[in-house]
Fold each of these.
Amino acid sequence: MATPLRLLSIIGARPQIIKAASVSRAVANLGDRIAHTILHTGQHYDTGMSEVFFQELGIPAADINLGVGSGPHGHQTALMLAAIEEVLLRKEHDVVVLYGDTNSTLAGALAAIKLHVPVAHIEAGLRSFNKAMPEEINRIVCDHCSTWLFCPTKTAVDNLQREGVSLDMDHVPTKDRPRVVQCGDVMFDNSMHFAALARSRATVLQELEIVGTDFVLATVHRDNNTDDPLRLNAIFGALLELHQRERIAIVVPVHPRTRKMMDRLLDPALFAALSTTQGFHLVPPAGFLDMIALESNARLVITDSGGVQKEAFFFAKPCVILRSETEWLELVQLGQAELVDADPERILSAAERFLRDGVPSCQPVFGDGHAAERICAELIKGQ
Ligand code: UD1
Ligand code: UDP
C-alpha cells in the first residue's frame, strides 16, 4: 500500500473553515491515501464564526489550535508564523494546504517556504489589483511561495501567467516552477453539496417569519467599509432607504467586526432606526446552512464578501457589490453583479434595477462541484 500523503491544512477565518470542508470530504473518500491534519490558527474564535462550521459541515475537529485571536495585522501574523514554524519543524507533513487570502494564509505560506515544505494554494491567482486591501498582499505572497496553484477560474490562471508563472505541465512542480491547475471552486463544491440539506434543516427563514423570496440579503465586513465612518453610514443608510422605498425585508447577518464598528461609528439615529424598523433584520452571523438558505431564497444579495458574491452567482441571484473592484470579474462581465462601491445612489439604483429586471441565466464558470477531488488527485500524483 502507498504511504499516505501527509497534508497539513491551515485555516483560521470563517471562509477558510468552509473551504476546508470540501477538501476534508474529498480526503475522507480516499480512505487511507491521505493523512489530513487540520491546524486552526484561532483567527476567528466566536462559536458562530468557527465552531458552527465544523459541526454543520462535518469537518473533523482541528488537531491543533493556536488560539492566536484578534490583533493588528503584523502582531497577529507574527504570532501565527512563529507557532506554525514550530509545528512544521516536527517534519510531520509533506504539503501545507492554504486557503484564500487571510492573515492565516500569509503566515502559513511564509512559515512553510522558509522550511522548504511545499505549499498548495487553493484559490490561487485571484487579484483585485488594489494593494490597499490586506487580502491582496496575502494572496500575492502566498501564490509566489506555492508549488501547486489551484485556480478556481480562467481569469485566475491568466493573472498568474501575467506574473510570469509558467503554465507548462511537463515538469515536476517545485516552488520555483509551480504547477498551475484550473480545478474549479471548492466553494461551489460546498454549495452544491449542502443545498439540499439547507432546504431541509435551515431554520432562519421561519425564525425571521419570512415567507417566500421577498427579501434582500446583505453582508458587510471589509475593513475599508467597516472602519470608515462615511462608508459605513453610507452603506447602512442606503440599505434602510432601500427597505423603505421598495417595502422589502432586509436581512443582515452582522460580522463581529461590523458589530463593533457600528457601535462606534454609526450615526445613533440611523442605528436606532435600523434596530427598530420592522422588516429590517440585524442578526448574528449565520451558520452555513442558514446562509445557503438565505442566499438561495433571496431576491437580491448586497455584499462586500468574496464568498457571498460567488454564492449569489451559484444560486443565480443578482448581486450588488459594495466595492470598487472584484477578484471575481466573471460575475460582473456576465451581468449577474454590479460594482457600486459605498455610493448610496449607485447602491440604490443597482438594487432597484436588479429587483425589477432580475438577471440573465449564466453558464457555470466555477467548475463542476468536484474541485477538491481534483486537488487531492493532483497532490497524490506529485507525491
Ligand atoms: C478576516 C480576513 C478577511 C476575510 C474575513 C472573513 C484578514 C486580513 N482578513 O477579516 O479576508 O474576508 O476574515 O470573515 O485575514 N472578531 C470577533 N470574533 C471573531 C473574529 C473576529 O469578535 O471570532 C472581531 C475582532 O474584533 C477582530 C475583528 O473582528 O479584531 C476582525 O477580525 P480579523 O480576523 O482580524 O479580520 P476580519 O475582518 O474578520
Ligand atoms: N457566511 C456564513 N454566515 C454569515 C456570512 C457568511 O456562513 O453570516 C459564509 C458564506 O456563505 C461564505 C463565507 O461565509 O461561504 C464567506 O465568508 P466571509 O464573507 O466571512 O469572507 P470572504 O469570503 O469575504 O473572505
Note: The two ends are 14 Å apart (CA to CA).
Amino acid sequence: VSGIPTFDVSLKDIQVLEGLDAVRKRPGMYIGSTSVDGLHHLVYEIVDNSIDEAMGGHCDKIEVILHIDGSASVRDNGRGIPVSIVPKEGRSAVEVVMTVLHAGGKFDDKAFAFSGGLHGVGASVVNALSEWCSVEVRRDDKVHKQSYQRGKPDSPLAIIGTTDEHGTFTTFKPDHEIFADTTFVFETLTRRLKELAFLNKGLHIVLTDERTDQVADLKFDGGLVSYCEFLAKGKTPLHDKPLYIFGQTLTDTNSILGQVEVVLQWTDAYNESIFSFVNNINTMEGGTHLTGLKAALTRVVNSFAESSGMLKTFKDGITGEDIREGLVGICSVRVKNPEFQGQTKTKLGNTEVRTWVETVVAEKLTDYFNENPAVVRRIIQKIIDAARARIAAKKARELTRRKGALDFAGLPGKLPETFATTTLR
Ligand code: 0RA
C-alpha cells in the first residue's frame, strides 16, 4: 500500500509466536470451549481490545451489532489498529494483529493496557475461528480494510476511502465447522456488556440486534456506584449513598502499576453479596483482592465497634461474617500481571495485592467512619443483631442435637430392641 511509513516505534516489540492452524486444531485451548460459551467469547475477545483502548482514554464508545446473516461487528472510536508495515514482517500491523497468535498485546506503551480476556489471546483467535472476517481501520484520514477466510488474508491491507474519523471496525462470522451452534444470544451478550459498562465508568456500549431490532444502550456515569445501586435494588440501605473507594499506585515514571476501586453498601438484608473483578474479569473464586477487602472490613469495623462502647452489652464477639451480613459490595482491581488460579482460573493469586487492597480500603473506610458517626452506629447495631442471631441459631441447633442424643442414650439397650420392647408392651 502506498504512502504508508515502513517503521513505527510503537510496533518494535511485536513478536512472532505461532500460526493460527493450532487454534483451529484445538479451539478449546484458546476460547475455553466450542459451546455457546465459546461462541460468545469471540465477541468478548474483540470487545476486550476496544476496552483496552477505552481504558487508555482513546475511545469512549463501543458498538456491537448482531447481523441477520449470523455475523457480528464490533466498532470503536479509538485510534485504530496501526496500519504501518512491520519491518521484520513485511506486512501491515493490522495483518500481524489479525493473523499472528498473541500479537495483539505485544506493542504500544501498555501504560493502561490491563488486558482483559480470560484467555487473553486476541483478535487472531477470533479470525482463525471465523468462516470470514474483515477489519476496517479509520486513521490518518483514510479507511483501511482487509478481509480473511478462516484466518487467511484475501489480500494485503488496502485503502478503500477517505475519512475524518478514527477507530476500528471488525466483523466476523463464526465458523460452523468449529461451533455446533453459531446463534448469538442477545441476553447473554447484554449481561456481560452491561457488566463492562458498569466497570468502565462513562464508557458508552451499544448492542444492536438486527435480527430482532432489540437494542441495549449501556452507559453508567456512576460506574461501580451505579453497579452497587443496581445490585442493592429492593434492599433497604443503612446509609444514603454507597461508600466509594479508589486507590492507585504509580511507578516512578507515573505509569499505573495498579488500581483498586471498591464500593460498599450495607443493607438490612441477611445475605452477603460481594463481587470481585480483576482487569474486568469476574473473579468468581475470589482471591487476594477480596481477601484484602475482607481483612480491612474486619479490622476497621472491629476497631470502631470496640471504641463505640456498643459491645459493652454484647460480650460474645462479632465475626467477619456478621460484619458482611447484608453488605452489597464490589471490588474491582486492575493489575499488570494478574495470576489466575483455581478450578475455573477465576481466583487472583498475586500475594502483593492482598496487603495493598487492605491498606487502601482500611484507610478510606476509617476516614468515612470518622466522618459519619451516625452511619457507623447503625451499621454496628445491625452487625450486633447479626451476631446475636448467629449465636441464638447455634444454641438452638445444639439444643436440638442434645435432646436427640438424650432420647436414645437415656433408654436402655440397643435401639431396635428398645423399640421392639416398647411395641410389645
Ligand atoms: C496499539 C497501538 C495503537 C492502537 C491499538 C493498539 C488499537 C488496537 C485495537 C483493537 C481494537 N481497537 C483498537 N484500537 C486501537 C495506536 C498507536 C498510535 O496510534 O500511536
Note: The chain has twelve helices and 18 strands.
